[in-house]
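Regression report. Comparing outputs from two consecutive submissions.

Submission 1:
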Amino acid sequence: MAFPLLLLGASAILVLASNKHSKQGSSHPLAKNGQKWVKPQNGAIVSCGIFGVFDHSGIWLDGNIIELKGNGLIRGISPKRFLQNRSGKQIYVACDNNDRPVTDDTVAIRASEKLFHYCEYDLIRNNCHKFVWSCVSGKSTALTGFSELNSLLAEHYDCEIHWQKAEI
């Protein structure tokens, strides 16, 4: 019994260490001051907090969010369900310097093509952030934490990433 707890503790430390502030974007959506309300667009990257320690991310599509669930199912859920059983009460949208959602049609297409598929979920090696990045880039890149996702998004869209409140 001690080994699984030790493993969980080590995993939490790795995730926390990967969530340090990035020069290329806010490390956590709640960290940004002066937030604006932004209407998500298809293919937009969205996020919410989980118990003040982790972040969960997904892709906005037609008023729903496509996410990688902890059991490995890629599914579409309502914004209300996206927040259910999480500490965050707000969904945030990844935006550029002008507070426009960063996205393109390819992201939405890739996310919709993955709906109802299963993959081997792993908190560290194959999580929601890796799923989101695969929808954005079309690549399966090793990525663990939210700050890594921010850095990759900033590089991909050639802008600093700002997380703004989703107007739903």
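Submission 2:
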Amino acid sequence: MSEAFIAHLRDLASGFGALSARSMFGGHGIYHDGLMIALIADEAVYLKVDAQTAPRFRAAGCEPFVYTRQRKPIELSFWSVPESAMDSPQDMKPWLTLAYQAALRKANAAPPKKAKAKRVVAKRAAAKKITVKKASRRKPAAHD
């Protein structure tokens, strides 16, 4: 992954705000205010979308990021940006704003019931481990 490409994206975000990059899966995750708003893969930028923003990306001719897993295509909630957005901060800002709004909605959404159930099970398991540890530390009772 080209550091020059990441620097170019940061320049494009000059009117939007600071971006940070983290290596991941052969590409980079791009973060703003602690939320992942973009993915860089193969020298292309893909911005976070949700049900509210995907139609705008689709109407602009953008396409989703798709990878193959076990010979099946997997579509992520990150879409390419219009070519014109890669030319100026003014053209990129509205797209970055849409991506950030989608990331905020996801971060503030209630967790799915399945994820909540997993957390409850994990908490119960952790509580049992604590109880077991406490019980194993007790001194044996003296016999008369």
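Expected: both submissions complete independently.
Actual: both completed, but the second showed a warning that disappeared on reload.
Relevant detail on submission 2: The mean pLDDT is 85.
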